[in-house]
Amino acid sequence: NVTKEFTQGLPKSELHLHIEGTLEPDLKLKLAQRNQIDIGQTTIAEVQKTYQYDDLASFLEVYYPAMNVLQKECDFYDLAMAYFRRAAQNNVRHVEVFFDPQAHTSRGVAFSTVISGLHRAVVDARALNVDATLIMCFLRDFSKESARQTLAQALPYKDWLVGIGLDSDEHNNPPLKFARQFEDAAAAGLHLTTHCDIDQKDSLEHIRQALEIMGVERLDHGTNIVEDPDLVDFVAQRGIGLTSCPLSNSFVSPEMKGKEVLQLLEKKAPVSIHSDDPAYFGGYISDNYYALADKFNLSRQQVIQLARNSFTTAWISPEKRDLYL
Ligand code: ES4
Ligand code: ZN
User: Fold this and answer.
1) Ligand 2: centre distance to CA 276 (Å)
2) Closest-lying ligand to the alpha carbon of 274?
3) What are phi and psi of 134, to 5 degrees?
4) Is 218 helix (H, G, I), strand (E, B) or coil?
5) By C-alpha distance, which of 53, 2, 8, 48 is closest to 25?
6) Residue 301: Cβ within 10 Å count
């Protein structure tokens, strides 16, 4: 049987984790104090009371204002190191961390401040036996021009990045809006992924664009793909990963997309399990594995397959992959 100890002990790769979504209430309060920012709450319980949302838009309204406490290089370092310690406790051996520079540059924080703090933590994570890299995401509800400027700011640091992603509010913001920036990023040697959220009415069309036109190599969430068997065959044949996040999904769908995950496993499409915004959705990666395994009665073999998929679809060298598999 699958226990919490089993999901925790299993070596895992984390491919869908927003670093800003790891900001726990205690660190939020500490940084607010350090930077003399009034966030309107002074206790952990008060902060937790603000965590009420039932769709992406209402979540993002809580999520972005909280980031005000992130001001200095050391704030980004402390945020990422706190996460890497959690990752180590969860037996996460490899992690590709999403970050949203525009959520910070739009508040007047320099791009270099954000990426320098995160990168310094990536280097120090090695001492925790956590192999970490960074994926820069564009905010899809910002303009193309803003994405273009953000990519221009990032390219001098491209050796610190493994890939590019797309997140935030998907409504009326299809992947194709950023086709040019994705092309430029790929030309610079970066991998490509995009969110295709589960509660989007245009989800299948967005998945199609991302796969067939933009050549993305993974889909974040993306489990609505089961509605189109041809697209499922496409990702299975090419080894395109789908990064599903059960606890995040549970806010918009009580079944957490578990049936879809099982169908994808059945069809040998490389679906895997991740955390999204663990400080906001009630658990880190082992909790996400356990929540799904418990609700859908997964076998140990199925859980092991999900973890294997998280390594086969990771953006790591074949040599490193062999070490993990
Ligand atoms: C996100 Cl759950 C979710 N969806 C889209 N964008 C995001 N950024 C952080 N969490
Ligand atoms: Zn996400």
Assistant:
1) 5
2) 2
3) -120, 140
4) strand
5) 48
6) 10
The whole-number average pLDDT for the span 68-73 is: 98
Residue 316 belongs to domain with CATH number:
3.20.20.140
What's the pLDDT score for residue 17?
99
What pLDDT score does 54 carry?
A: 87
Q: Percent of the chain having pLDDT more than 70? A: 100
Residue 63 belongs to domain spanning: 4-324
- Cα 322 to averaged position of ligand 1 atoms, centre (Å): 31
| DSSP percent split of the chain into helix, strand, coil, nearest 5 | 55, 15, 30
**Single pTM value for the model:** 0.98
198 CB less than 6 Å from ligand 1? no
User: Residue whose CA is closest, atom 3 of ligand 1?
Assistant: 168
**What letter would DSSP give residue 86?**
H
pLDDT in tens, 95-146: 999 999 999 999 999 999 999 999 999 999 999 999 999 999 999 999 999 9
> Does residue 206 have a known ligand-binding role?
no
**Is 274 marked as a binding-site residue?**
no
- How big is the chain by its Cα radius of gyration, in Å? 18
Q: Tell me: the pLDDT tens digits for 290-321?
A: 999 999 999 999 999 999 999 999 999 999 99
- Which residues are 166's β-sheet partners? 138
Classified as helix, coil or strand, 51 is: coil
16 marked ligand binding residue: yes
**Ligand whose nearest atom lies closest to the CA of 138:** 1
Q: Model confidence over 186-235: pLDDT tens digits? A: 999 999 999 999 999 999 999 999 999 999 999 999 999 999 999 999 99
Work out how many domains the chain is built from and give that number.
Answer: 1
Q: Is the CB of 56 under 6 A from ligand 1?
A: yes
